[in-house]
Amino acid sequence: MQKIFIITLLAICFGACSKEGDFQEKASMRQMQLRSLSLAPDARFIVIINNALITDSLVSTGVVSKLIKTTSETQHVVIKDYQSNALLYDTSLSTPGTSFNINILQLDATGTQKPQLISGGKSEDIPEKKVLLSLYYDDPTMPESMTVTIYCIKQNPVTFTYDGTDTLVNFAIVRRGQLADFHLMDFSLDPNFNLYVFQPRDVTTGEILPGAEMDAPSFYAPMLGIGPTAAKHIICNILGTDIGGGAHYFYGSPLISY
After folding, report:
1. What does pTM read for this prediction?
2. Which of 1, 99, 106, 236 could connect to 38 by a Cys-Cys bridge, CB 3.0–4.6 Å?
3. Largest distance between two CA atoms of the chain
4. How far is residue 68 from each of residues 72, 95, 238, measured CA to CA in Å?
5. What is the radius of gyration, based on Cα positions, of the chain?
6. How far, CA to CA in Å, does 245 sit from each of 123, 204, 248, 251?
7. What confidence tens digit (pLDDT) does each residue in 10-19 have?
8. CA atoms within 13 A of residue 7's CA, in its CB half-sphere
9. 74 backbone dihedrals φ, ψ, rounded to 5°
10. How far is CA 106 from CA 40, 45, 76, in A?
11. In what helix (H) or strand (E) does residue 98 lie, and over which residues does it extend?
């Protein structure tokens, strides 16, 4: 009888420990930040993560931060349009780390195109004096794709003369109408005194696109248009005014930063 009691007690303890261990392994609380950034003024979204309603009316520049229960580094995300209840996403997103961001980017001002999802670690993971830069363009007069290199033309802070050019990052391919992959870029040089510029090239030949020539000592190149910012993610819109003969006057403008 005593043996039966001991075996039963051990079984209960083992079962309790197993359940507790399973719970610790399968579920944990993680900090989530959900953000909507849209060029469409009426964009609103319903967001469900891991079958839990996070918000039923996420508007542009809206931010939702909360602790949620997660069972892995992959989260089940469902996004619907608030107005029509149309399903936009039913997908799994990789969200490594103890906290993570999910960003809904609506780059179409009409709101008719499907928004893009970007997920990843928290902004604090980005090193000091660096930013994650992405590029976007949708001008039909520009090539379907291009290679883009980002430079910084430096100015001597005392003499205000040319002080060299740093090559910062190269986008091997940027496709029209598609958000380019984010690249880590040095942003330590003060944009009040130094010029952040870019140069687009033909993807196949590597030739500089007409109108995108650079004369660094004269501080001439297509301007990226980045000013001082505390944001860690910057999406720049590449624009080009058709000046005839297949050439463009290229310039950039921050589209969204966060």
Report:
1. 0.74
2. 106
3. 99
4. 12, 13, 37
5. 25
6. 43, 20, 9, 18
7. 444 445 454 4
8. 4
9. -120, 125
10. 7, 11, 20
11. none
